[in-house]
Amino acid sequence: MRILVCVKRVPMTGGKIVLSDDAQAIETKHLGFTISPHEECGLEEAVRLIEANGGESVVLTLGPPEAEEQLRDAMALGADRAIHLVTDANEWDPQATASAIVEAVRADEATNGPLDLVFFGNEAADSGGYQVGIRVAYALERPVATGLKGVALEAGAVRCEQEVPGGRDVYVLPLPAVVTVLEGLNLPRYPSVPSKLRAQRKPVESSSPTRPEQRLEKLRLVVPETQGKEAEILGHGPGAAPAVVEVLQRIGVA
Amino acid sequence: MTLPSQARAVVIGCGIVGNSLAYHLTDQGWSDVVLLDKGPLPNPGGSTGHASNFIFLVDHSKEMTQLTLESARQYRELGVYTECGGLEVARTEERMEELRRRMASAKSWGIEPVSLVTPAEIKELVPYIDESILLGGFHTPGVGVVDSLRAGTLMRERAVESGGLTVSANTETVGMDVENGRIRRVRTSRGTIEADTVVIACGVWSPLLAAMAGAHIPLTPAVHQMIDIGPVPRFEKSSRAIEYPIVRDMDVFMYERQDGTGLEIGSYAHRSILHDPEEIPSIAEAALSPTEFPFTQSDFDPQMLDALDLMPEIVGDESVGVKYAINGLIALTPDGMPILGETPEVTGLWSVAAVWVKEGPGVGKSVAEWMVHGESHIDLHSSDVSRFHPHQKTRAHVKARTFEAFPKTYGIVHPAEQWSSDRNLRISPMHRQEAELGAVFHEAAGWERPQWYDVNAPLVERYGVEEREAEWDARWWSPVINAEHLAMREHAGLFDLSAFAIFDVQGAGALDALQRAVLAQMDVGVGRVVYTPVLGPGGGFKSDLTIMRLGDESFRIVTGGAHGMADKKLFRDLLPADGSATLDDVTTAWTTIGLWGPRARDILASVTRDDVSGEGFPFGHCRTLEIGSQLVLASRISYVGDLGWELYVPIEQGGRLWDVLWEAGQPHSLTACGIGVYGTTGRLEKGYRAYGAELESEYTVVEAGMQRPKVKEQDFVGKEAHLRHREEEPAAILCTLTIDDHTSTSGVKRYPLGREPITLRDGTPLTDAKGRRSYVTSAGAGPSLGAYLLFAYLPPEHATEGSQELAVEYMHERFPVTVARVGAVPLFDPENTRIRA
Amino acid sequence: MATLVYVEEPGDLTQQTLAFARGLGEPLQAYTAGDPVDVRGVEKVHHAEGDAFGTFAPAAIARGLVELMNAHSPSAVVASGTPRANEVLARVAAVTDLPLAANCVASTPGDPAAVTRTRWGGSLLEQARIHAETLLLTVQPHAVEAEPAQGEAAPVESFSPALQDADRVVTVRERVGSGAGGVSLAEAKVVVSCGRGAGSPEGFGIIEELAGLLGGAVGCSRAVTMAGWRPHTDQVGQTGTKIAPDIYIACGISGATQHMAGCKGAKAILAVNTDPEAPILASADYAVIGDLHEVVPAISAELRKAGAG
Question: What are chain C's partners, defined as 3 or more CB pairs within 8 angstroms?
Answer without folding.
Answer: A, B
